[in-house]
Fold:
Amino acid sequence: MFTSQTSSFQDSIDVEERDDFDSEEIAGYSQKIQLNCYYTIYLYQGTRSEASGENVAWNQRRADSTTSHDDFSLTLVDSSLPAEAEPDLRTYISRRLSKGALLGGMGNIATVELGIPEQAVGCYCCLLEQERSPEQPDADGNGYVICFMGGSEKGLNLFRLELDKYVQGLHSSLQIPENLETEVRPYLSQWYEESVMHIHRVVQLVQNNISFLLHAALSHIHVEVVNSDERTKADVSRFIKAASLQGLSQQDTTTASLCKAISEDTQSDLIIDCSTSPPTLTNTVSNRFCDDWIQAFLNAAERCNPFLLRQILENFKLKAIQDMNSLKRFVRQAEMSHYALFRCCQFLQGCGNGDVLLQNARAEHSDLPEACSIISVLEEFLREQPQAQA
Structure:
């Protein structure tokens, strides 16, 4: 009866066998050092704007690496690309700017052909505009074009939000040309480690215990990391945020209601103590649904493939959302049909995520008495299952 459900779940986990990442691409990520990552930063100047003091200083640094157009000029500030590849990138960026395809503060991701061994490479680029002077409100804007290259277009798209946020962290440093050596260059050179590798580091940290973090993310349980450095705490926090369904619910009030219900239910925080190796986790809770994803995460982490890891995480969330929508449909039907209630019980028994689904359903239907009564029956059914099997 639930063959299609099982098949769909298996398809979600088996990302490695699908076209999202072909075998040749996965082989390229089998070792971390095999993936070459680059950055480039350009000074962008509109031809109708007057150069500020810092822009003049940037221009003087690389006057031989400027591309000029009728509407703007593009000057190389710094790059980790091989010298023979940088002009190809500058030509590509110039074309995008000429077409108005780069909007201020919004990252753009595409595949570019460069004169480096990878040939085609994923490229994230973003125009950081400077604030316009009150004396020249209509002047063309000045700013910087930041480019990150590595992996594939498809892979970088999975980390678009992280890359956008990382680029915004450059605003203050770019105001002073002398910051190039001390702040800008070190910051740009860490883009891959800071914006892409955090999920991989978390899976490597907790290994088989990743299911406890997945369950905590779905259940809106707070996760506290103790006896660790700030980077590890930030990595875990970002993982939980990436794995949670917050912001994806059809009703914005669901998350707030759920968090309130959890606080009233006095559920304990998940504690990760990094004073031991591997870390010790306390107050752990998981279920069969989260456990079924462990091996997929471990396999991708072993390949050092952060892009595949992120795709698996997105598939995990998608499957959870699909099951939540199925449960809501069954609950609506169960209000009018005992057979639908029976199907609902079977679904919860088969999906392995019944505790999380019912928790979210109760929060979302808190103002619907009939639905709440159905959910109470389903919760009682799930509590009886371990006793019946014993």
Observations:
- Strands lie at 38-46, 66-68, 72-79, 108-113, 120-129, 142-149, 223-226, 270-273, 280-282.
- Confidence is low (pLDDT under 50) at residues 22-33, 57-63.
- The longest strand covers residues 120-129.
- The two ends are 25 Å apart (CA to CA).
